[in-house]
Amino acid sequence: MKIKINDIPEEGLDLEFSENLAELNVEHEQLEKLKEVTANIHIQKEDFGFFAFGEINVDWDLICNRCLIPFPQTAKIEFSREYRLIEEDIADEKIEEDILSAVLIKNEEIDLENEIKEDLLLAIPIKILCKAECKGICPNCGQNLNVKKCSCVQEETDIRWEALKEIKNKLEKTKQNKTKKIN
Ligand SMILES: [Zn+2]
Ligand SMILES: [Zn+2]
Q: Ligand 2 center to residue 149 CA distance, Å?
């Protein structure tokens, strides 16, 4: 993903990446597998250096936050970056503030790899669910509750039913007592 600055013509350069990107070493605890990444990026000359923009399409297996099972997902990411050419004698504070958000390039090439990796990582949601109604796993026994209920959950349910039964019994006793009194 390295582009020699001298190879960028006045009208800019259209780049298409696919194969190289699938080998990107992107690591994230919610990312199980990067299956396919393609990017279409245009680089153009600017006063400050270069501006690159385009789209990254990704096909990956992400890990569900609740059930911890990987599931396939695709994402479309808008890409844009400023690449500022800096010279050795850069000293002006104003310029330094201005270039904080930009990628600084000193040498003769632009390497898009880091920025593409950065955007891929940012595209992984903080909360990922395989489906909105994912039941997750039992914190007790680790059973995937989407597949089947575990006995821990049943016990919990039983406790609730027990409480209801008690109330019901009490009500019935009260009724019986009232009935007895009438009799
Ligand atoms: Zn899930
Ligand atoms: Zn359980």
A: 7
Residues with CB under 5 A from ligand 2 (ion): 138, 140-141, 143, 150, 152
**Alpha-carbon distance 156 to 34, whole Å?**
39
Sign of the CA dihedral running 145, 149, 154, 157: positive
Element (DSSP H or E) covering residue 64:
none
Distance (Å) from CA 154 to ligand 1 centroid: 20
**Single-letter residue type at 78:** E
pLDDT tens figures, 121-172: 999 998 999 999 999 999 899 999 999 999 885 555 555 666 677 777 777 7
| Ligand number nearest to the C-alpha of 152 | 2
